Amino acid sequence: xxxxxxxxxxxxxxxxxxxxxxxxxxxxxxxxxxxxxxxxxxxxxxxxxxxxxxxxxxxxxxxxxxxxxxxxxxxxxxxxxxxxxxxxxxxxxxxxxxxxxxxxxxxxxxxxxxxxxxxxxxxxxxxxxxxxxxxxxxxxxxxxxxxxxxxxxxxxxxxxxxxxxxxxxxxxxxxxxxxxxxxxxxxxxxxxxxxxxxxxxxxxxxxxxxxxxxxxxxxxxxxxxxxxxxxxxxxxxxxxxxxxxxxxxxxxxxxxxxxxxxxxxxxxxxxxxxxxxxxxxxxxxxxxxxxxxx
Length: 294
Prior knowledge:
This is NAD(P)-dependent oxidoreductase. By secondary structure, this protein is of the alpha/beta class. It has helices spanning 12-21, 37-41, 50-54, 67-74, 80-83, 98-110, 124-129, 140-145, 147-153, 164-194, 199-207, 214-225, 235-251, 257-271, 283-289; strands at residues 2-6, 25-29, 45-46, 59-62, 89-92, 114-121, 132-138, 154-159. It folds into two domains: 2-162, 3-Layer(aba) Sandwich (Rossmann fold); 169-289, N-(1-d-carboxylethyl)-l-norvaline Dehydrogenase, domain 2 (Orthogonal Bundle). 53% of the residues lie in helices and 14% in strands. The chain has an eight-stranded mixed sheet, sandwiched between helices.
């Protein structure tokens, strides 16, 4: 299968690599071209523009940081829409707003193309291993056509049906649940630390009793080890996701008070020079509030 890939960050690179290793013909584009060097050395073709990566492709995937990046590379004369053939599929794996997902679907429909949102749950090691969870929505023809590549990228696909915006809303919701779980753990690690119980001890108890989900084990371990640099996903991405969740909640008139707290936490991290750290460094804010930071 001929596949184009747009966006070679910490998630996009291992995902594209899995498709290349599975035998697909791959054309790759990234604004910082050097990030494509490894994939090109393994057989991928370097494209000069998103349109060039999409041209002649059966499917083009995009994995980009935010709405602004997706819009800048999807639209215009050098964008994905301009390069994609009629009846070919654009799959956005990016964490973007439901509104943008709807607009992308409309733009592709106007050009006789197909669009689907396939948002992913998991960090770069899971992407490398093909163990992502994928939340999929889009036209039935698109969902059928991309089933095999998605099986290469993830361990399970959750199919929501025809409306791609729903995949983005679910992804934002689940990211918010990760952030709020980190906040909850951080507060309790700080409380127990001041009470003489080491974070590692609380972590062992909680992950071997009622709190054994991956979100507790994986992010709890990052907090205990203070393993925030290099980041799997840095603070600006978390702040962006939380902002998009607040916008979606306002549009649907659903109060989400914890999201407002998290917004302030991420802004505090930015103000204190922690923007380059993994968002699990959110735990530092609870430690700081408790007087545990030097």
